[in-house]
Write a structure and sequence with these properties.
The chain is an all-beta fold and about 200 residues long. Helices cover about 0% and strands about 45% of the residues. The strands form four sheets. Strands 3, 4, 5, 6 and 7 form a five-stranded antiparallel β-sheet that branches. The protein has a four-stranded antiparallel β-sheet with strand order 8-9-10-11, with no helix packed on it. A four-stranded antiparallel β-sheet has the order 12-13-14-15, with no helix packed on it. Strand 14 and strand 15 form a beta hairpin. It starts with 6 loop residues before the first strand and ends in a 27-residue tail after the last strand.
Length: about 200
């Protein structure tokens, strides 16, 4: 999100072009991380990002509803008093969630919004120790049906915790020492523009 997010532009995969520009006047936000912008999280028909609301002077989660074409923001939990620099948005089970590094205590906190858009429904569900991870860092990616939490150590290892918060193990997925990234995806029958074109 830019320093002056007075409008959003929407790219249409179907038309393979920038199709729509939506202007906003009631929101004045800046991205939390201008140097390393993070992709938004799609959940419940909206895309979500961390941002700083200039009018409220607060860190918030700003969201764009793709159906209604409206912006709204979600407050962090009252008990969460850190800046969202070492944090990430994710879907934990079926819930809108975020994780946050707590370097003072060598842990990662997982916060879950039990009722979407209801600030009082934020619940801290896990506090995961990271002292058993060589990089002292953990970024959750997904959870399994049994409740295990899988993520990365910010370099080249996958890390797994059980639903009790116990570290089950970490394993390298890439032998090169250079940093790489892992991403979750969902298989789809949707074809992107140009997939069916003849060469």
């Amino acid at each position: 999100m830019s320093v002056d997010p007075s409008h959003l532009e929407i790219f249409s995969l179907r038309a393979n072009t920038w199709k729509e520009e939506i202007h906003f006047t009631q929101f004045s936000c800046v991205g939390v991380s201008e140097f390393e912008p993070k992709p938004g999280l799609f959940f419940n028909g909206a895309i979500h990002w961390f941002a700083f609301h200039l009018g409220l002077r607060l860190d918030v989660i700003i969201s764009f509803d793709l159906i209604e074409r409206k912006l709204f923001y979600i407050h962090f939990p009252d008990e969460f008093n850190r800046e969202p620099h070492d944090c990430g948005l994710w879907v934990f089970g079926e819930f809108f969630s975020f994780w946050a590094m707590d370097y003072d205590n060598d842990t990662v906190e997982i916060w879950v919004m039990k009722e979407y858009k209801v600030r009082s429904s934020w619940t801290k569900t896990h506090v995961l120790p990271i002292d058993g991870i060589p990089t002292q860092y953990f970024s959750p990616l997904c959870s399994t049906k049994s409740g295990d939490i899988i993520g990365t150590d910010d370099l080249n290892r996958l890390v797994k915790y059980n639903d009790e918060g116990q570290l089950l193990g970490h394993r390298s997925y890439y032998d090169n020492l250079r940093q790489c990234q892992v991403a979750m995806y969902t298989e789809s029958l949707l074809s992107l523009p140009g997939d069916n074109e003849q060469a």
